[in-house]
Amino acid sequence: MIKLAPSILSADFSNLLSDIKVVEDAGCEYLHIDVMDGHFVPNITIGPPVINALKGKIDMVFDVHLMIENPDKYIEAFSDAGADLIVVHQEACTHLHRTIQSIKALGKKAGVALNPATPIETIKHIIHDIDMVLIMTVNPGFGGQKFIESMIPKIKELKSLCLKENVNIDIQVDGGITPENVKKVVSAGANIIVAGSAIFGSNDIKQTVKLFRENSVV
């Protein structure tokens, strides 16, 4: 069974808590929180104060995706704000193993995100140290982008690496995923699905969540 992680990047920020309550009531397990700094990606979103304001009001896993330069400088702040899972980009970390250990030392789960052009090979040697890999199926920075079909073999490659290394980690996929294409993503090996505009932009969020689950059965 997949887990769904609606991305608040596509929520109505003027009614953020209300929007999140809707996806929580629809049964979504994770809240995907995209943090952008205007440097690593060409957009700026939110920081620790917003996460802190939401913590305690929502009973979902706070899945914080740091699309920022120098993530080591901010890991403790996001941990203190209420992150349960902190995801950093391989491309942004000079010493990735050290960054992961810093997250773990704070008692949080650690994930590593890979941009579309970044090979799976780059995380082979830290696969045993992490809880999740996030495969980006769009180039990060903006919501509502089209799914990059060539990422399907990459998801399969990651799943094969996990089996070969005998590690049981989550495979999260983010970017352009809809009820219409979710099955191919899950078939390739993903078990946590990030969806932004497909969920928050839906006229009937509960029905859309139901469709995601029904269509992901393989």
UniProtKB/TrEMBL annotation:
Annotated gene: rpe
Pathway: Carbohydrate degradation
Role summary: Catalyzes the reversible epimerization of D-ribulose 5-phosphate to D-xylulose 5-phosphate.
Binding locations of substrate: S7, H65, G141, F142, G143, G144, D174, G175, G176, G196, S197
Molecular function GO labels: D-ribulose-phosphate 3-epimerase activity; metal ion binding
Signal peptide positions on this chain: none
Similarity remark: Belongs to the ribulose-phosphate 3-epimerase family.
Listed name of the protein: Ribulose-phosphate 3-epimerase
Cofactor needs: Mn(2+); Zn(2+); a divalent metal cation; Co(2+)
GO CC, one annotated term: cytoplasm
Positions annotated as active site in the UniProt record: D34 (proton acceptor), D174 (proton donor)
The EC number(s) this enzyme carries: 5.1.3.1
GO biological process: pentose catabolic process; pentose-phosphate shunt
Cofactor remark: Binds 1 divalent metal cation per subunit.
One matching Pfam family: Ribul_P_3_epim
